[in-house]
Amino acid sequence: MSQRKGKPFLASGKKARRDARKDAAGRVHLTVLRDPASGHERVALRTPVFREAWQNDIAAAAANTAYSALRGEPSVDSAVELARDAMAATSRLAAGLLARAPDGAVACRAGCDHCCHQSVGVTPPEALAIADHLKSTLSDAELARMAQHVSGCHERTRSLPSTERFSPDHPCPFLRSGRCSIYEVRPLSCRGMNSLDAGECATRLRDPEARAAFLARGVGGRSFMEPIRGVHAISAGLQLSLSELFRLDMRPLELTAAMHLLLNGPDSLADAWIRGERPFESARSADNATAPGLGELIAAVGLAPGREP
């Protein structure tokens, strides 16, 4: 169906509102088109938000998936399932893009954990999916120990700026013996990171002078960028769809702080979020936008065509 054959339409269900929510700058990035003949609806970008056309196509596809998954009666379960689908899709996309890299170019290997010592951004559905995974795979005693461990990590890092979080002293709370203990449900941003030089990563993290120089420059090391751009596109589509069409708070959260809330806070947090409230406010860091690998709505909502990423 071409865009010309449809007309803008916003579903009038409990969460999909007739007027899409605008961002802080008064912009709306998505529209829902209905084919007058079949009644079929699809989500489209009003204008490109990324420089590359393939990123815009992926963002629109992700927004369509989110709209279809939640359009009936949004629930915590449907948001968790959506996050899991997005995680799987992101891994498939990254694998396909990495297959094009020259043999031996990508340095990341199992047990390589240099990028697991920094502030990590997640959206609420990702955090809910991680919490659901932990609660369904751990025993009560194991879950209690995990909640206590996450709480301890949160207390040690909650007041630190992202520059100090990037340190061998502050590993991800889910890192175990150099491996991710939640690999199946690891955040989207973790799935796109693929270094071209593991030695450079190690030096940048563990050598104080190299780490200080890296943070002062404000630029990352050498990485295979296509998977990162793919992650940005998928996450942007999800964030825009749930924010604009369902009026859910999709501002990125800091992983440790979000999991501290979900594992140690009241059980009502997830339900409050699906109702359109903002129960995760304390999990937002003041300098999230500058943290490595972190972005405000992936910067897509403020990203003019022709700019990175």
Which tags fit this structure?
mainly alpha; 11 helices; globular; 7 strands
Topology:
Blueprint lengths: L6 E2 L21 E5 L6 E5 L7 H18 L5 H23 L22 E2 L1 H14 L2 H18 L4 H4 L9 E2 L2 E2 L7 H5 L5 H9 L1 H10 L7 H21 L7 E2 H10 L4 H6 L35
Antiparallel strand pairs: 1-2, 2-3, 4-7, 5-6
Helix pairs in contact: 1-2, 1-9, 2-3, 2-9, 3-10, 4-10, 7-8
- Measured as a percent range, the helix fraction is 40-55%
Quote the beta fraction: 5-15%
Terminal Cα separation, in Å? 29 Å
Low-confidence runs: 1-15, 288-309
**Count of helical segments?**
11
The helix/strand order is EEEHHEHHHEEHHHHEHH
The overall pLDDT average reads: 83
Q: What summary fits the major beta sheet?
A: 3 strands, antiparallel
**How many extended strands?**
7
What is the structural class?
mainly alpha
Order of strands, widest sheet = 1-2-3
Shape: globular
Backbone CA Rg = 19 Å
Characterise the protein shown here.
The chain is mainly alpha-helical. The chain has eleven helices and seven strands. Helices cover 45% and strands 6% of the residues. A three-stranded antiparallel β-sheet has the order 1-2-3. Strand 2 and strand 3 form a beta hairpin. The longest helix has 23 residues. The N terminus and C terminus are likely disordered.
